[in-house]
């Protein structure tokens, strides 16, 4: 992949990102005529996933009570991430072999069906099936979207594309929680899931409208460096890592400190993840070797600490502090502004060629925000102050995750963007799964009754603070 060669002459063009990226003028932007409709289609996809994530987080306390699954609260989130792992690995293979379009179409269909099943569930088991189907679809969508960005946009525009995509979280993050709270209290939590199906259909139509442009971006891309045997191997390992993550989730969702079938299952899941994950990520990831391996481990650490914390914040606010679902949703919505701010900062041209320090700064901000949430919970301070902690956490996540997305594509040839995007999203989802599983295991083991769990939340989140602090180290190991 050639690097851009800027020139002061406005009429001069630059060739970036290989043949598939095409030729573009430096003044072109993400919403210039060449890229406008494709950018809108990508924004539509991310908006759907963002709305589902933020809205469901707000509605879940009510759904857990109705389905008699408070102790298994974290499982409702982690099972989706578990099947997302499988979707991510399969999408990497699929995109490398036939391009991103089949993965995009299948992913949107599965995501919509999964949400519809969740809304129709009368038992927690069926609810988990719906979450699993939606997670599989989300995994296919996310990786395919990254491949489209790597192939259809020049390298100089990619930071801005990721900035716009992160900004696509703003409206769903601001409106999703309040809307979900209103819908839940006015009708039912079920309508939150059913309403998600509508924007899924809209996003699907947007992708269909840009079918030709996405397909054209694949025509001149060289064949993947992985052959059929390697692709088949990756698919089987993807199935194994998803099964291992599922075993871990099931074994820890009602954890007790005693030997049982569930405890053994959880240990087998840990062993499966430990054996499989290194085979699907760049060599040296867990040793934090310089370059792409440190990109992957930094992404893992960020999502592990952030999502392990944020998943339980609504439950703490409602059960421990007595806030309404609407108030808890508002706190999440305000906190989400930080993510967009951090992503906007990293998208500025001044960071071109020196993006690695942003990852370390992101890790530091995330750790600071998590520590503030721990202090607010422990000392019983005004719960609305948690919004400030979440703004700090979100700014760190925006800086770190968007920068890591850009770095992963920069350090990889275009032909292998599918496998690299798959690895990055695998690290992302694996971090979320393990973070939520660890928090869920602590909560299930120490939970007594609602209103007396503040020390449990403090214990969970202190451990995740330590994890987030390691991002600072990983960020310093990215530059080769």
Q: Summed up, what is this model?
A:
By secondary structure, the chain is mainly alpha-helical.
Strand order of the largest sheet: 1-2
Please give the CATH class: Mainly Alpha
End-to-end Cα distance, whole Å, is: 16 Å
Radius of gyration: 21 Å
Q: State the helicity in percent bands.
A: over 70%
Question: Which fold name fills CATH's third level, the topology?
Answer: Growth Hormone, Chain: A
The total of helices stands at 17
Biggest sheet character: 2 strands, antiparallel
**Proportion of strand residues:** under 5%
Average of the residue pLDDT scores: 77
Q: Which stretches are poorly predicted, pLDDT < 50 over at least 5 residues?
A: 1-27
Number of domains: 1
In the CATH hierarchy, the architecture is: Up-down Bundle
Q: Would you identify the CATH H-level superfamily?
A: MFS general substrate transporter like domains
* Quaternary organization: single chain
**Tertiary shape:** globular
Estimated structural class: mainly alpha
Structure description:
With 480 residues, the chain is an all-alpha fold. The protein has one domain: Up-down Bundle (Growth Hormone, Chain: A). 73% of the residues lie in helices and 1% in strands. It has 17 helices and two strands. The protein has helices spanning 36-66, 75-98, 101-119, 124-152, 158-167, 170-186, 190-209, 211-218, 228-252, 261-280, 292-310, 313-319, 325-346, 356-379, 386-410, 417-446, 454-475; strands at residues 14-15, 23-24. Strands 1-2 form a two-stranded antiparallel ribbon. A hairpin with a 7-residue loop joins β1 (14-15) and β2. α5 (158-167) packs antiparallel against α13 (325-346) and α14 packs antiparallel against α15 (386-410). The longest helix has 31 residues, at 36-66. The two termini are 16 Å apart. 58% of the residues are buried. Residues 1-27 have low confidence and may be disordered. The chain crosses the membrane at residues 36-60, 72-94, 129-149, 161-183, 189-209, 234-251, 257-281, 293-317, 323-345, 357-379, 385-409, 430-450, 456-475. Keywords: Membrane, Transmembrane, Transmembrane helix. Residues 36-477 form the Major facilitator superfamily (MFS) profile domain.
């Amino acid at each position: 992949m050639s690097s851009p060669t800027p020139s002061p002459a406005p009429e001069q063009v630059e060739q970036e990102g290989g043949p598939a990226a095409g030729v573009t003028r430096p003044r072109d932007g993400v919403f210039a005529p060449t890229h406008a409709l494709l950018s809108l289609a990508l924004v539509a996809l991310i908006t759907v996933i963002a709305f589902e994530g933020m809205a469901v987080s707000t509605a879940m306390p009510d759904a857990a009570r109705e389905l008699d699954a408070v102790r298994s609260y974290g499982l409702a989130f982690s099972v989706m991430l578990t099947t997302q792992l499988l979707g991510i690995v399969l999408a990497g293979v699929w995109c490398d072999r036939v391009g991103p379009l089949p993965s995009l179409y299948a992913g949107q269909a599965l995501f919509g069906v999964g949400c519809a099943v969740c809304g129709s569930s009368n038992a927690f088991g069926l609810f988990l099936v719906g979450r699993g189907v939606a997670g599989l679809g989300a995994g296919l969508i996310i990786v395919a979207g990254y491949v489209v960005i790597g192939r259809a946009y020049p390298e100089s525009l990619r930071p801005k594309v990721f900035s716009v995509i992160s900004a696509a979280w703003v409206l769903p993050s601001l409106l999703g929680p309040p809307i979900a709270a209103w819908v839940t209290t006015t009708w039912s939590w079920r309508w939150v899931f059913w309403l998600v199906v509508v924007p899924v259909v809209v996003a699907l139509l947007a992708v269909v409208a840009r079918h030709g442009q996405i397909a054209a971006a694949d025509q001149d891309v060289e064949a993947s460096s992985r052959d059929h045997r390697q692709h088949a191997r990756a698919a089987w390992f993807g199935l194994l890592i998803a099964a291992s993550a599922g075993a871990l989730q099931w074994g820890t969702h009602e954890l007790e400190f005693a030997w049982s079938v569930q405890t053994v299952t959880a240990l087998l899941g840990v062993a499966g993840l430990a054996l499989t994950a290194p085979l699907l990520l760049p060599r040296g990831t867990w040793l934090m070797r310089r370059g792409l391996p440190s990109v992957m481990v930094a992404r893992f650490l960020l999502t592990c600490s952030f999502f392990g914390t944020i998943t339980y914040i609504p439950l703490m606010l409602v059960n421990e502090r007595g806030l309404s679902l609407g108030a808890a949703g508002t706190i999440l919505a305000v906190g989400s502004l930080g993510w967009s701010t951090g992503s906007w900062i990293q998208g500025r041209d001044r960071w071109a060629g020196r993006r690695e320090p942003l990852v370390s700064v992101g890790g530091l901000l995330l750790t600071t925000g998590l520590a503030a949430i721990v202090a607010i919970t422990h000392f019983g301070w005004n719960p609305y102050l948690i919004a400030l902690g979440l703004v700090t956490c979100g700014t760190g996540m925006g800086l770190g995750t968007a920068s890591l997305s850009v770095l992963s594509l920069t350090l990889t040839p275009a032909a292998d963007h599918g496998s690299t995007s798959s690895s990055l999203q695998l690290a992302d989802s694996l971090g979320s799964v393990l973070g939520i599983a660890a928090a869920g295991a602590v909560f299930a083991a120490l939970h007594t009754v609602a209103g007396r769990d503040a020390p449990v939340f403090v214990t969970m989140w202190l451990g995740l603070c330590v994890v987030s602090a390691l991002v600072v180290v990983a960020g310093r190991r990215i530059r080769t």
